[in-house]
């Protein structure tokens, strides 16, 4: 699971959860894949993603203070920033661990890179 | 440049046409069900990357089937058509070689793939057509060989009620084959068609809420260069297949998989640009209500996660029978949702969003309309085909009636002819009966002959059996002999082994002896060297000896000469002194006599004179003696000198003068032999008569 996907996952399918975002990450195994850098695509993604949630996810994975807390101005022309964002959004993958609902603390296990978001019938 | 055609999956000709339309220098010619015909100029490489077609062919023949054709005339008609067009065949083959990238000189393996459908679909027709096509095209396939298993070239023939189509398949594998997909749940061409239907661009972020093996997402990444996609499925087994596909195609860099329920909301609202979904109709969800529930929930959740202006592509069953939802129903459910959502204030609905949604809806509708158009065009084609069929049937009926009338007249004439024939035949029958009886008699005779032959055969069989048993005995005997021979052979083998061992021993001995011989040779060489050394030493000693002897001889000669001279002088001196003394005494006596008496002197003078004369004679005698002696001495000296000269000239080792008995001192020389033995060499010289004889040789 890439952090881009994590950035759009919520736990609002659970009963009683209103926002369910962002999900906490407890990673047991993290992998880094090399992915071709496409500045246009990353610029567009930066517009779309929830930046604080991405920073928090990076922190959960132990990359404290590696990402600036806010999106820098004129990021389209800041290649260093775009490459950093590319690395965190596309290249870092959580292979094993848990995603944690911020409201109920319910764990969604991540196995072999696939988060299991299935909820039991009584949870829905 | 010949024309081309491609086969397409059912309902995909619309997309194939769309793909072909954007290719440069391409002219579309005809679209039939499952086939698109076109003409292409310039580079042909772009044809090989068509995404929605199944197979690509170089067109050889494409003609309409004449409506009144019958099975019996099919062969002639086919022959006519094929031979008429087969002159283009070599051109087609050249084009095929160019596009298939095959060296124009090498032999091409080919097979013929015939497909008959409609009225011609009969096994007999199939065989006839295959062999016919083979025979026609073989004339143009000089450098080609038939290979049914692994051909380079597949000649495709399709004959249905409307058209005869022949083409050369360009690629061995279909164009729709994707090497990067291990598990295909949705055909790759259909995936591409879905992507084309939503006008997918590389900018779009895609969601597949029921991704299965993720074929749609892999196609979106590989063919449309998309950068991010998410696939959701509730089945872990399906997700395993999806993971396999993603890792083989390397699309895992852009696609994330999530195990989840398609109907539950697990994503942020209004995020995805495109939702693509293959609803599993008819497989797992057979019940109408189940499908309806599923589709409704999918549409509902898709509506939430899709961003304003986003596009949805849902693959559903082509027709709405068996309780499945039709396309229109889905669109209606979208509409209902829109209608429901518009007044809802909770969804932060602004006018812009509403407009976006409307746009979205319209795009969906357009897509649906396009699909419907495609369907309509298909139906039209089918209709046209059916119409042509009906026309053909009518004309066939008319023809049949006319033929019937002519046949009736024909038959009547024939009936009379047949009657005549019958009479003729009855006479023939009676004749034949007579012949038959003769034949029966002959047959009986033959029977009797047969029986005798059988008896003979039995006897022969008996003989053969006896011979067989005899041969068997012989065989057993020979086997026992063989066994004996085998035993002997074994013995021989053993003996051979023993002999070999002995041989080895002898070889070893031989080797040893050779070594000894070598040693002896070496020793011999050493001795030879020593002998040579000794000879050298011996020669040197000889030389030394010789030099020494020469010196001694010279010395001796000199001393002898000196001695001889000395003695001669002494002798002379003595003789002189004696003579002078005698003279003086005689003079003294003479004086005394003179003094004594003159008289006497005178008397005596005569006497004296006599005496003087006597003495004078004596002196003369002495002188003579002296001369003799001198002469003798000279002779001796000369003889000695000659001897010395002779000795010197003859190179003898020793010499001595006639009057010198000299003993040459021992010449002692060390002479060594192999046993460190010294030889002493000693020579003695006695007189001049044996100058060459070595005196003695003795050990010291």
TrEMBL record, chain A:
<comment type="similarity">
    <text>Belongs to the TRM112 family.</text>
</comment>
<dbReference type="Pfam" id="PF03966">
    <property type="entry name" value="Trm112p"/>
</dbReference>
<keyword id="KW-0539">Nucleus</keyword>
<dbReference type="InterPro" id="IPR005651">
    <property type="entry name" value="Trm112-like"/>
</dbReference>
<protein>
    <recommendedName>
        <fullName>Multifunctional methyltransferase subunit TRM112-like protein</fullName>
    </recommendedName>
</protein>
<dbReference type="GO" id="GO:0005654">
    <property type="term" value="C:nucleoplasm"/>
</dbReference>
<keyword id="KW-0963">Cytoplasm</keyword>
<dbReference type="InterPro" id="IPR039127">
    <property type="entry name" value="Trm112"/>
</dbReference>
<dbReference type="GO" id="GO:0046982">
    <property type="term" value="F:protein heterodimerization activity"/>
</dbReference>
<dbReference type="GO" id="GO:0048471">
    <property type="term" value="C:perinuclear region of cytoplasm"/>
</dbReference>
TrEMBL record, chain B:
<protein>
    <recommendedName>
        <fullName>Ribosomal RNA large subunit methyltransferase K/L-like methyltransferase domain-containing protein</fullName>
    </recommendedName>
</protein>
<feature type="region of interest" description="Disordered">
    <location>
        <begin position="675"/>
        <end position="700"/>
    </location>
</feature>
<keyword id="KW-0175">Coiled coil</keyword>
<dbReference type="Pfam" id="PF01170">
    <property type="entry name" value="UPF0020"/>
</dbReference>
<dbReference type="InterPro" id="IPR000241">
    <property type="entry name" value="RlmKL-like_Mtase"/>
</dbReference>
<feature type="coiled-coil region">
    <location>
        <begin position="355"/>
        <end position="389"/>
    </location>
</feature>
<feature type="coiled-coil region">
    <location>
        <begin position="598"/>
        <end position="639"/>
    </location>
</feature>
<feature type="compositionally biased region" description="Basic and acidic residues">
    <location>
        <begin position="688"/>
        <end position="700"/>
    </location>
</feature>
<feature type="domain" description="Ribosomal RNA large subunit methyltransferase K/L-like methyltransferase">
    <location>
        <begin position="186"/>
        <end position="319"/>
    </location>
</feature>
<feature type="coiled-coil region">
    <location>
        <begin position="415"/>
        <end position="551"/>
    </location>
</feature>
<dbReference type="GO" id="GO:0043527">
    <property type="term" value="C:tRNA methyltransferase complex"/>
</dbReference>
<dbReference type="InterPro" id="IPR029063">
    <property type="entry name" value="SAM-dependent_MTases_sf"/>
</dbReference>
<dbReference type="GO" id="GO:0030488">
    <property type="term" value="P:tRNA methylation"/>
</dbReference>
<dbReference type="GO" id="GO:0016423">
    <property type="term" value="F:tRNA (guanine) methyltransferase activity"/>
</dbReference>
């Amino acid at each position: 699971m890439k952090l881009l996907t994590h950035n759009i996952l919520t736990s609002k399918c659970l009963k009683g959860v209103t926002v369910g975002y962002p999900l906490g990450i407890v990673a047991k195994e993290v992998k880094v894949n090399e992915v071709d850098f496409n500045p246009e695509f990353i610029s567009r993604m930066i517009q779309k993603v929830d930046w604080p949630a991405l920073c928090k996810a990076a922190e959960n994975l132990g990359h404290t203070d590696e990402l600036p807390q806010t999106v820098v101005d004129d990021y389209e022309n800041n290649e260093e920033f775009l490459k950093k964002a590319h690395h965190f959004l596309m290249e870092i993958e959580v292979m094993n661990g848990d995603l944690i609902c911020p409201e109920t603390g319910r764990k969604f296990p991540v196995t072999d890179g696939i988060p299991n978001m299935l909820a039991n019938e009584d949870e829905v | 440049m010949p024309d081309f055609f491609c086969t397409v999956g059912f309902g995909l000709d619309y997309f194939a046409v769309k793909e072909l339309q954007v290719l440069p220098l391409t002219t579309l010619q005809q679209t039939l069900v499952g086939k698109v015909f076109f003409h292409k100029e310039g580079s042909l490489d772009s044809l090989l990357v068509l995404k929605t077609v199944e197979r690509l062919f170089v067109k050889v023949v494409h003609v309409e089937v004449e409506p009144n054709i019958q099975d019996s005339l099919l062969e002639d008609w086919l022959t006519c058509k094929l031979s008429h067009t087969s002159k283009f065949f070599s051109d087609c083959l050249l084009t095929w070689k160019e596009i298939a990238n095959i060296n124009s000189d090498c032999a091409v393996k080919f097979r013929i793939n015939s497909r008959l459908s409609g009225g011609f679909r009969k096994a007999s027709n199939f065989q006839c057509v295959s062999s016919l096509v083979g025979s026609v095209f073989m004339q143009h396939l000089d450098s080609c060989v038939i290979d049914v298993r692994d051909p380079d070239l597949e000649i495709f023939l399709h004959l249905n009620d409307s058209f005869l189509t022949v083409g050369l398949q360009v690629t061995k594998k279909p164009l729709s084959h994707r090497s990067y997909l291990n598990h295909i749940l949705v055909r790759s061409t259909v995936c591409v068609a879905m992507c084309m239907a939503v006008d997918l661009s590389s900018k779009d972020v895609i969601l597949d809420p029921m991704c299965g093996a993720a074929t749609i997402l892999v196609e979106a990444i590989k063919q449309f260069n998309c950068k991010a996609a998410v696939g959701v499925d509730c089945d872990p087994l399906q997700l395993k297949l999806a993971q396999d596909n993603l890792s083989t195609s390397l699309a895992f860099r852009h696609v994330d998989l999530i195990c989840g329920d398609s109907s539950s909301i697990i994503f942020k609202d209004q995020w995805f640009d495109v939702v693509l979904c293959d609803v599993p109709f008819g497989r797992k969800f057979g019940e109408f209500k189940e499908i309806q529930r599923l589709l409704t929930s999918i549409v509902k959740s898709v509506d939430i996660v899709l961003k304003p202006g986003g596009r949805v592509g849902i693959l559903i069953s082509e027709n709405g029978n068996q309780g499945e939802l039709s396309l229109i129903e889905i669109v209606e459910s979208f509409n209902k949702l829109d209608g429901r959502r518009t007044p809802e204030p909770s969804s932060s609905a602004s006018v812009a969003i509403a407009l976006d949604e409307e746009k979205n809806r319209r795009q969906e509708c357009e897509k649906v309309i396009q699909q419907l158009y495609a369907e309509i065009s298909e139906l039209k084609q089918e209709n046209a085909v059916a119409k042509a069929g009906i026309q053909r049937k009518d004309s066939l009926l008319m023809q049949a009636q006319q033929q019937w009338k002519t046949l009736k007249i024909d038959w009547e004439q024939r009936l009379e002819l047949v009657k005549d024939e019958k009479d003729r035949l009855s006479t023939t029958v009676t004749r034949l009966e007579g012949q038959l009886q003769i034949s029966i008699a002959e047959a009986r005779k033959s029977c009797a002959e047969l029986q005798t032959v059988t008896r003979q055969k039995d006897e022969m069989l008996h003989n053969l059996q006896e011979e067989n048993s005899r041969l068997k005995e012989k065989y057993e005997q020979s086997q026992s002999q063989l066994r004996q021979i085998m035993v002997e052979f074994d013995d021989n083998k053993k003996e051979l082994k023993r002999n070999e061992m002995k041989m080895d021993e002898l070889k070893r001995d031989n080797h040893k002896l050779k070594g000894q011989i070598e040693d002896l040779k070496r020793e011999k060489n050493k001795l030879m060297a020593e002998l040579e050394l000794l000879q050298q030493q011996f020669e040197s000693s000889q030389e030394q000896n010789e030099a020494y002897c020469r010196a001694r001889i010279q010395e001796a000669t000199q001393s002898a000469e000196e001695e001889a001279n000395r003695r001669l002088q002494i002798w002379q001196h003595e003789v002189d002194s004696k003579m002078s003394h005698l003279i003086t005494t005689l003079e003294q006596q003479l004086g005394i006599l003179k003094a004594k008496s003159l008289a006497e002197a005178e008397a005596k003078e005569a006497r004296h004179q006599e005496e003087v004369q006597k003495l004078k004679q004596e002196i003369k005698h002495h002188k003579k003696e002296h001369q003799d002696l001198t002469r003798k001495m000279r002779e001796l000296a000369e003889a000695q000198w000659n001897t010395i000269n002779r000795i010197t000239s003859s190179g003898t080792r020793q010499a001595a003068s006639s009057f010198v008995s000299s003993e040459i001192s021992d010449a002692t020389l060390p002479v060594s032999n192999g046993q460190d033995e010294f030889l002493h060499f000693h020579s003695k010289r006695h007189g001049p008569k044996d100058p060459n004889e070595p005196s003695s040789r003795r050990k010291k």
